[in-house]
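Objective 1.3, modelling of assemblies. Example input:
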Amino acid sequence: MPSVNRPLSPHLQVYRPQLTSILSISHRLMGLALSVGTVFLVWQLVAAASGPAEYATFQGLAGSWLGLLLLVGWSFALFYHLANGIRHLVWDAGYGFDLATTYRSGQIVVVAAIALTVIAWIVALGIWGGR
Amino acid sequence: MNDPHMRTPLGRVYGLGSARDGAGAWWGMRLSSIALVPLSLWWVIAIIAHAGADYAEFRHWVASPVPAILLILTLGVTCYHLAHGVQEVVEDYVHTEAAKIAILIAVKFGAVVLAVAGIFSVLRIAFGS
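Predicted structure (tokens):
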């Protein structure tokens, strides 16, 4: 039970979902996902510093289809959080608050996150193919 | 981070706010966000490019001066940003005081452990096993 006796935000269930609210909660969810992703990337560094056997253990997961899926997800979460984070910084500077601009910037964030993820992986597959 | 000039005199007297130093926390989050725009962009591209790298290849990359410096900067700023970002979420959704404080302590400790483990590993690889 809440220990404070007053209305506590946010109430995710009581509002009709809109692009703005979906992007807002997604920003937090992607941030949490990125935090988990950071644990994996630090694991990779610790494994690489520890020795070949430890690195092989890491590669066992990272090299699997699940590892690749996690990496694609991490990259999308990062591109999304980055694009929407820039949107937040623009708001912090005092711009883009009217409704039309808020929706427009939201659409740009979604398109940018998807486009950057696709481009990054096309380039990556090119690099891997060239090896 | 706790620059008193970030707050109004009245706000300082009241001593209220999310964690009694909201203005400093807000500014710290903005600074780390700005730093992470170039750093995280470099990071995601570098990580994807080295995803298939074997042990020697990965270590060779981490040991090069520019990647090592950027990795250390990225790890430090990311762990700061991560700790404060997760803190915001916890403060908004965990309404039981004891659980909230316990999770916040765990998040802070975890973020410091992540940063130290990551940065130490980069330095160890860079300066030779």
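Chain A touches chain B through 46 residues (CB under 8 Å).
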